[in-house]
Amino acid sequence: MHGPESPAWLLVALCAATGAYCLLRMRSSVEDQRRAAGGEAVMGFGMAAMAVPAAVFTAPAWAWAGGAVVFGAAGLRALWAARTGRRHLHHLVEAGAMVYMAAAMAASPASGSAAHGHAGHGAFGAPVLTGILLLYFAGYVLLTGVRLIPGVAVAGGGPGAGAPAAAGWGDRPELARACRLAMAIGMLAMLLTM
Questions:
Q1: Count: domains in the chain
Q2: Distances from the Cα of 123 to the Cαs of 68, 118, 135, in angstroms?
Q3: Residues with Cβ < 8 Å from 103, sequence gap 6 or more?
Q4: Could you list the residue range(s) of the whole structural domain that residue 91 is in?
């Protein structure tokens, strides 16, 4: 993406760490959590690769097109999974945003050079789709952040209504939510640079 180098490296670190944690979550004993963690790991590592500063590595246009295909496949998988759970719709939006950004990078005249903007961004500013995605991810970040506040989680149930004490660290819903929050913050930062 296009932006100052230090924040870009912080974004790379955040996304790579989130992807690594999601890989560890794939060891869960719950099949649905393993599947979700796998998709989130792909998203985290893809975001990390996309956030590498252009001054360090400029990917060829075919790499961005390949990324669009990979995230398109992830989006189709999320669409199929959405019939069983609403949270997969967020994965679908994430995958769609990644396809959009990868396609914009592939269509960019310099394929990721910091000297050029994304395709479709001229004197009129960011396209409408970028604005819609920015609003979605800003709302998601705020909503997920509120859900991580301990008082909100406790208010939903009485004593002992939380997760069982024997649940492993990979099965804890608040950690999975924090992982999704970190990726949404990363996605918001990447969209802001478009």
A1: 1
A2: 26, 12, 21
A3: 64, 65, 68, 119
A4: 5-192
Quote the pTM value. 0.76
Per-residue pLDDT 10s for the chain (194 aa) are: 555 678 889 999 999 999 999 888 888 777 777 878 888 888 999 999 888 887 787 878 788 888 899 999 999 988 988 888 777 888 899 999 999 998 888 887 654 443 334 444 443 446 899 999 999 999 999 998 888 887 654 444 444 444 444 556 666 777 888 888 999 999 998 898 87
Q: Please state, in angstroms and rounded to a whole number, the distance separating the CA atoms of residues 175 and 155.
A: 18
